[in-house]
Amino acid sequence: MIKGSCLCQSVQYSISGAVGDIIHCHCETCRKAHASAFSSVSRVEDGDFTMTHGQEMLKCYESSPGKFRYFCRVCGSQIYAKRENTQHVILRLGTLDDDPEAKEVGHIWVSDKARWYTVTGDLPQHDTFN
Where does the CENP-V/GFA domain start and stop, copy by copy (predicted)? Predict the structure, then answer.
């Protein structure tokens, strides 16, 4: 069982299955939503993701058509995103309390990255969503 929570601990969740490969997204909406150079995310199947505390504390924002970002209304921590007609959530890995035992596989939307940030390392880089 993998657990996670927001900064203020108002929202808590657990994951009963595997966390997918780790992707670092550099798109403008991820950068602005997280106030960071990129967002590290993984896919988690809906049936493996359970809100264990504070679901009523979640607010959501439709950041692009059909994509909703869920965050704590107290501290603002983004917990996950959900696209319409999918069977998984896009987990925001910064909220994990435990090791997801997943591997990094690449950077996406590098064409949209912050001009002040240089991507380094050996992970594959993709100009868009691959």
Answer: 2-110
